[in-house]
Write a structure and sequence with these properties.
Layout (H helix, E strand, L loop, with lengths): L7 E5 L11 H10 L4 E7 L7 H9 L8 E9 L18 E5 L3 E3 L2 E3 L1 H9 L4 H18 L4 E3 L4 H4 L8 H14 L3 E5 L7 H10 L3 E4 L15 H7 L3
Parallel strand pairs: 1-2, 2-3, 3-4, 4-7, 7-8, 8-9
Antiparallel strand pairs: 5-6
Length: 237
């Protein structure tokens, strides 16, 4: 655990998310057992979500072991190219919004991966698809500064493209925007992204990188394997 990012897990889901099985208490205990210094407790929200005050109250009641810092977050998808998020009005107490590419942010709203693949097959140029996607992510960072990118670029394989298709110019613009907006960028164990070229662009831009497991079960908290080689290559080892 030599890389500073690996001292924390900045994306850990609990039973406040429909698809997770561990409680907040179980996740905190797992983080302490893994020797982490920081854990960010995160759950999925939509515009219709009403339980955020309940979640914050539950976090405040946690017994946090000495030496562990507990942070909060909610994960919301990008809706469109303007940078709108699928998120309710948030009360005070949420440290960071996790900005997620769960769907493709288009002009008139989010598109599912199959719809994007169909449009590419019908003639939508991949370069234009990538421009629109990166522009949307940058717009979201600028509209919602001081937050965190969750598993950024995970949508690309789902639409038949890859991070390698992005190229240096797009990655540099994306990384500069992250630095300028105080956006944390997570290296995600579950999705193994962003990749080496993106991480190097972030380092050149002076943007902050954190590690996350995106765990949905406490046994995975702070357990890194897939992103270790990414971080090692980024450091030039």
């Amino acid at each position: 655990m030599s890389h500073p990012a690996l001292r924390g897990d900045h994306h850990v889901h609990s039973t406040f998310s429909d698809d997770a099985v561990s409680t907040l208490e179980e996740n905190v205990a797992a983080a302490a057992a893994a020797g982490l210094e920081t854990v960010r407790l995160v759950d999925h929200v939509r515009q219709s979500t009403t339980w955020v005050p309940e979640y914050l109250a539950a976090v405040r009641r946690l017994r946090v072991p000495e030496g562990l810092t507990v942070l909060t977050g909610v994960e919301a998808k990008i809706l469109d190219v303007s940078g709108a998020l699928d998120i309710p009005t948030l009360p005070e107490g949420i440290d960071r919004i996790l900005i997620a590419d769960h769907q493709f942010p288009d002009v008139d709203g989010p598109l599912g991966p199959s719809a994007v693949r169909e449009r590419i097959a019908a003639g939508w140029a991949p370069a234009d698809v990538l421009d629109r996607f990166v522009d949307a992510v940058i717009a979201t960072m600028r509209r919602h500064p001081g937050n965190q990118l969750a598993h950024c670029f995970s949508i690309l394989p789902k639409i038949g493209l890859a991070e390698e298709d992005l190229g240096a110019e797009r990655l540099d613009a994306w990384a500069r925007a992250a630095a300028e907006t105080d956006t944390l960028v997570e290296v995600n164990e579950k999705w193994t992204c962003p990749g080496t070229d993106a991480l190097r662009a972030l380092e050149r831009a002076g943007a902050a990188i954190v590690a996350s497991t995106d765990s949905h079960v406490a046994a995975d908290v702070g357990r890194y394997a897939r992103i270790l080689p990414l971080l090692a290559r980024t450091e030039g080892r």
